[in-house]
Amino acid sequence: MLMTRAVKSLFLFASLISILLLSGNTVAMENTANGINLVVNPGFEMRGSNAHEQWYRDLNQTANKGKIVRVKYGKYLDNHAIRMKPTSANDEAHPLSIAQEIPIQNILGETVEISGKLSARGGAVALIGVMTLVNGKTSPFEWISHASNSGEWVHKSMPYTIPTDPSTKLYLSLIVSGKTGSVSFDDIRIISKSTEATDQGSTGTDQLHATITIDADSITRQIPDAIFGANIEWPWNATGLWDEKKNRVDKKAEQLTKALGIKLIRFPGGIDADFYHWRDGIGPRDQRPKVKYRAGDVGKTRPNFGTDEALAFAESIGGELLITVNAGTGTPEEAADWVRYVNKDELRVRFWEVGNELYINSPEPHASEVTITPKEYADRFIAFAEAMKKADPRIQIGAIGGLNEGSYQQISYPNWNKILFRKAGDYIDFLAVHNAYAPILTGDERNKTVRDVYRAMLGRPVSIAKNLQRQAKQLEAVYPDAAQRPFIAVTEWGPIFQFFHAGEYVDHPKTLGSAIFSASTFNALLKSPETEISAFWMLNDFSSLGWIASANDRFPPDPEWQETARYYAYQMYTQHFGRQLIKTEVTGPTFNTPKVGWSDALKSVPYLDVITSLGPNNETLYILVINKHFDEAISADINISNAATADQGTQWQLTGKGLDSHTGTKVINVPWIKWGIQKTDKENPRFNKRGADEITISDTMVTGLGNNFTHSFPPLSITSLEIPLE
């Protein structure tokens, strides 16, 4: 009787109009003993401009349908409820009602519990209804109803499964059916069993807790030197690395790079590698030609930082080069001659990569002019590999590849890896992939908060790890003999938000949140036993992407190099971590992420990302813990077996004043470039505070350790515990 076709239409209308007011609501959600209540103002305790704050009423349709008042009920939840008194004008087409859109981007596919307290009298019927909108189409709705003449309160509930489609929207309505009497509502709940609300809000007064279990006798891998790598681009004096006035490498940049602990430099760049002709960058610098550095760019620059300068720089910091040869506009013979030039007297460069991202087919000239199909690349790779190995059979040659994953769609051609392995498998020493960027915004962030964007980014390392595992399984299937199997090289990775200068997030790679992402991503690379090379993007830059960046924005560039938060995060691994990974298991609280840009929505991402290692001669145990929670510390019970650990050790810790804190580096002030005004975290805005004191590096002595102890890790932090072994 209640759910006639007219009532269905009124429910649909009441639900959909909530979009007008409540989309993007950022009011904190209520934590309950059973989970997160996704309803805002569920007990009508908020005081505002109307009786139903945060709930929407369409006055154009219901102004004459009755009254909605906030009433006090001393013995019921939080003392207040909402009462609806219909008039004779109340009808089923547009009944007296209020509605709310429920944020569900982090609970897709979850079964929630919908409940509430209802009372009815005088012939009126109280309805709590829910409905979803999926790809613009409404789903069948479900409801709770209560009809009575007594006015007694009842509690009713029902389960409801959220669709898995990312376009899903959920609408909740409170409706009175009838023309007489009244209905009341209180304690309206949609309970998610997820461990954390979508805003990473407070979880109550008790500190979050985790357990870390470490087996010091179970070594999972030896960490290779080549995994500690970075990228350098050759144009514009290697983005300021070369001091043209003094005709040498910038000493401050060299010192910072050496202190960072880099062991491998990828050269001459990413995109620019496929337009670089190495002979332009050798010989007397004043005789080197000015050249365009990529298709589509009109500017020309002299390659002052060429092959010999790159070799000398790598040697000065105690590292080596990985060279990416020009497979876009170059030839196999040119690449082979480069090998001969570099290795004529000794094996100075052992890793060589054939081309950069030739698998990207997009309208931009730097991509469209060089992109090729996987079959064409496989044929070209064979020609390059044969010529280069003939020049020096000692070298190892990498082919470019990758697997698309969810929203991360970088490879334009299907089955790239499969075709490559089938045609050129015998020639490949390593597979070079670029699957570890985030969040890579596409425009959907305009309806998201800064915390949504960062939450999505901090979930990405989970997807990166899975993508590496998938590619490792591909390699295992093609190369069953482990001794003959190519390894993986992640030759570009790091935080990237936007590619255009006017973007509201373009300068966010330098923040504390980006440093937390960088550390978590590096954990994923270290934990991947098939990954032997990695190189973050990029070492230095007077724009937004350098891990070493400039304290001034002068143009023409005259950089004053200084550390970013990412730099300090990386140092935790090169200065306060060992080279033997050991088995570690973690249980603890998790969070869900929304889909933003190329970062997919994920469930149950651990707040704590933990990796442990042994130092030289097994004298020190290192426990490196990343806490991704924006606001809360997490206490962990740490249990160590098969080692005698000292009671006292050293704690090194990186943290800061907020999610978007940074050290104060600037982007170059080019007159014809307009940089965007950067978004800030509304709950704790730090981006515009900029300064060295925004990021903190500390070392303290800690006691009470041993084999079983409890330790607290502050929010947005990276901690390395160095514990001597007895």
Record keyword descriptors for this entry.
alpha+beta; Jelly Rolls; single chain; 9-stranded mixed beta sheet; 726 residues
Give a quick summary of the entry.
The chain is of the alpha+beta class. It has a domain at 5-192: Galactose-binding domain-like (Jelly Rolls).
Approximate strand percentage:
25-35%
Gyration radius, to the nearest Å? 30 Å
Average pLDDT, rounded to a whole number, is 91
- Low-confidence segments: 1-28, 195-199, 201-205
Distance between the termini: 78 Å
User: What is the CATH-assigned architecture of the domain at 5-192?
Assistant: Sandwich
SSE-based structural type: alpha+beta
Distinct helical segment count:
13
The residue fraction in helices comes out at 10-25%
Overall geometric form: elongated
Number of E-state strands: 39
The CATH topology of the domain at 5-192: Jelly Rolls
For the record, the CATH class of the domain at 5-192 is: Mainly Beta
Strand order of the largest sheet: 37-36-39-34-33-30-13-35-38
CATH superfamily of the domain at 5-192: Galactose-binding domain-like
Biggest sheet features: 9 strands, mixed
Descriptive account of the structure:
- This protein has 726 residues and is α+β, with helices and mostly antiparallel strands.
- The chain has a domain at 5-192: Galactose-binding domain-like (Jelly Rolls).
- The protein contains 13 helices and 39 strands.
- The strands form nine sheets. The chain has a nine-stranded mixed β-sheet, with helices on one face. Strands 14-17-20-21-22-23-25-27 form an eight-stranded parallel β-barrel, surrounded by four helices.
- The N and C termini lie far apart (78 Å).
- Residues 1-28, 195-199 and 201-205 have low confidence and may be disordered.
